[in-house]
Amino acid sequence: MSRALSTLRRPALAALLLAGAATLGGCASAGVSPMTTGSIARGGERSAGPTSPGQIEAAVRSYGMAYQRSPQDKGIGLAYASALQMTGRNDQSLAVMQQVAIAHPKDRDVLASYGKALAAAGELEKALDTVRRAQTPDYPDWRLYSAEGAILDQLGRPDEARVYYRKALDIQPNEPSVLSNLGMSHLLANDLKSAESYLRSAVRLPGADSRVRQNLALVVGLQGRFDEAQQIASAELDPTEAAANVAYLKSMLDQRNTWSMLKANDAGASASDG
Fold this sequence. Notes:
The protein is an all-alpha fold and 274 residues long. It has a single domain, classed as Tetratricopeptide repeat domain (Serine Threonine Protein Phosphatase 5, Tetratricopeptide repeat), CATH 1.25.40. 70% of the residues lie in helices and 1% in strands. It has helices at residues 3-18, 53-69, 74-86, 90-103, 108-120, 124-134, 142-154, 158-171, 176-188, 192-203, 210-222, 226-234, 239-255, 258-273; strands spanning 39-40, 46-47. A two-stranded antiparallel ribbon has the order 1-2. Helix 6 (124-134) packs antiparallel against helix 7, helix 10 (192-203) packs antiparallel against helix 11 and helix 11 runs antiparallel to helix 12. The longest helix has 17 residues, at 53-69. Residues 1-48 have low confidence and may be disordered.
């Protein structure tokens, strides 16, 4: 990883991705985690989910009231935990998932989301163990492979992570959430061109949700193409919110002189390739 992106990664990249609860980063619910490229709704189907800060807060209130009435309901618990993560309330999200996991100790969707909540709360080794225990070699679940890859990425083991993304794609070819995870894996390794390639492939596929497209906006913005990033973000966000996200991205890069460092790193890589 270049010094430029390393400068952003802890904690500045996390702050950039969170962007004050805005959604440019797409993976705001877990800081730099690429695990949240898709949300899980009742029955495990993907849901586009809320995109603006106001919608996210409304979802937290709505799911919170439903959870109080039915704390053992799988679908409600998963949705509530996911919404809490999108606001950065990772400890509360983990507490919810612990209760859901107690009620559904063998449910693989629940265990995968429990692992995600553990990772979001920073308990990466425990998250990895939880996801691996949920997996069954004779009938593997692609979601668990993808989650395992995302945790390994956070542990700084990208080569291992990508093995599991490939395993997920072997089972579920052209799955946009897995391709998005691959893109974010390359982002964390400062390979922005590969990150963009995977994310562009992901957004063209049926089922790509809002956060996949916002991940693409982030990667495009990190390459200095701010107008294009804003256009991508504006396709789903309020134009004012999209503009604010891109302005935040610019300010983060300017604040740490990171944009010039990224350009210098790219120039150095091009020279070494020549």
